[in-house]
Specification:
The structure is a homodimer. By secondary structure, the first copy, chain A, is α/β, with parallel strands linked by helices. Chain A is built from 11 helices and 10 strands. The mean pLDDT of chain A is 95. Chains A and B meet through helix 7, helix 8, helix 9 and helix 11 of A and helix 7, helix 8, helix 9 and helix 11 of B.
Chain lengths: 302, 302
């Protein structure tokens, strides 16, 4: 079972885990979440989105969160959907920039009122305004399935990834938005993309809506992919399946990596404690099986 | 990604899913669970255990459940921990017999007050009393980890499997009792066991306590293993991690098999409906991510 020696997990709970919540989480609690997870060993954060506050009120405090959470040894990424967001992110002095396009025309039309070509052109324009010392991560979402179009053509995803790579992004992340893919779907798209983007620059953002994310991740690791998004406690739901799970849980990913002998330096019990306390305080479902098992074992031993 | 063409899922909810519950489920509800899952396409059931009612009160009605649930086209397996249980199972006219040993000495001592050698000798004695027309499934539990001894030696599991196979059991099932194994653990033991037992006679009983069961199952399917235990709604907890999940959910397994193009003939939405209703009626946690997503999608469409 070939696997990369080291893997970087980007912690998605502060941004992707929270952005769909109705109740606004106070800045201090978002900053504490980042600080506590950093203390547990997290280095990279999908921290905030510089999006129109009217569209996503939860992210209206993005600049404040970055200002208060920024610290040596951590990398805070700000997602920017447009030029205005990019300007705000640079002003807030984020450590990295995230841009996103869907692989399907219909999803882009529904999500950002643009065709796929328009979405890519807008990304190219934004990239030209990013200072060279700031790394950019480009997400290609709906990488295996689109809620409007069904299965996504792996060749199209590969072509988008190649284009983004040519434009100089540091990382390309494939987003399995609906969480319905199984290992053959993931294998098909990853093999195509790897023809254009090396495994050391390729990442995956997996959702666990149908309980397949860890199995899908194994396929990715076997191809040498070494960058993973995950969310403590599985924070973040799936807008296309209300009540169902969203992001794959950091604790479950960490348990897999431990078992595969991959270095990543996270204290999983501490991550579970932090996420459990956060979920309890904000009345959110805690969704990591590894976390529940680790905390249960801890309580039994005490 | 090589996989078997067909897979038989044995539905474990009636026996393994219920046996640890404190509140006794009425016979009629157990029978309805079997009937409803049979109507959804389930053929094979881990139906009951003929165990000392004082030790496991939930299974005191085993003979009644078999009498009322027995029907053409389904295969009801009764687990028998001893000769007395075997006699009761044969009298109840089960379709198949299950026997079990742990792979570790300590687990057998704690569980059945016997050494591993004694446990195997007792199985051999029971096997000699089973009529030739009744198939026997032999479980080897703690196949990767023992709660008392830690990691299990794959060579020992292989040796036990070879012995059981020589004694004429129809199927050998590896039990990942603690649900803490990751794909490399599973791969190590399965490769050893396959030296002695063909993939068409080898099955796996996986727990999802740490959220790794579907990933572990992919490894098994890639080796050609075509027999799987799963429990509707993930029914059944883990006695070694209270509050944590136990059996891998039938719905999640079925979603994986669909994605891998494997035939198995289950109506997953119907399985989810049956298990959700059962869990609701008996105040149990419903734990299938695929099931939650499927029912959510169904409700959105209506």
């Amino acid at each position: 079972m070939p696997t990369p020696r080291t893997v970087v997990i980007t912690e998605s709970s502060p941004r992707d885990g929270l952005q769909s919540l109705g109740a606004i989480i106070p800045v201090t609690d978002k900053v504490a979440l980042i600080n506590d997870l950093a203390a547990a060993g997290t280095v990279s954060f999908d921290a905030v989105s510089f999006v129109n506050p009217a569209a996503v009120p939860q992210m209206a405090d993005a600049a404040d969160v970055v200002a208060q959470a920024k610290q040596p040894g951590t990398h805070l990424i700000g997602l920017v959907p447009n030029v205005r967001g990019l300007e705000a992110a640079l002003e807030a002095e984020v450590d990295g920039i995230g841009v996103l396009t869907a692989a399907s025309d219909s999803f882009n039309r529904h999500n950002i009122n643009a065709t796929l070509d328009q979405s890519m052109a807008r990304i190219r324009s934004r990239l030209s305004s990013v200072p060279s010392e700031i790394g950019v991560r480009a997400y290609v979402s709906t990488a295996t399935h689109c809620p409007y179009e069904g299965p996504t053509d792996p060749a199209r995803v590969a072509s988008l990834a190649a284009q983004l790579s040519e434009w100089g992004v540091e990382e390309v992340f494939l987003g399995e938005t609906l969480g319905r893919a199984t290992p053959p779907d993931i294998e098909n798209v990853v093999i195509e993309v790897l023809k254009h983007v090396g495994p050391e620059r390729l990442g995956v953002h997996l959702h666990d809506t149908f309980g397949q994310a860890i199995a899908n991740l194994v396929v990715c690791l076997e191809t040498g992919i070494s960058r993973i998004d995950a969310s403590a406690g599985g924070l973040g739901g799936c807008p296309y399946a209300p009540g169902a799970g969203g992001n794959v849980a950091t604790e479950d990913v960490g348990w897999l990596l431990n078992g595969m002998g991959v270095e990543r330096g996270l204290d999983l019990t501490r991550v579970a404690e932090v996420a459990t306390a956060f979920c309890k305080k904000h009345h959110l479902a805690y969704r990591s099986k590894t976390g529940i098992a680790l905390l249960s074992a801890r309580d039994t031993e005490q």
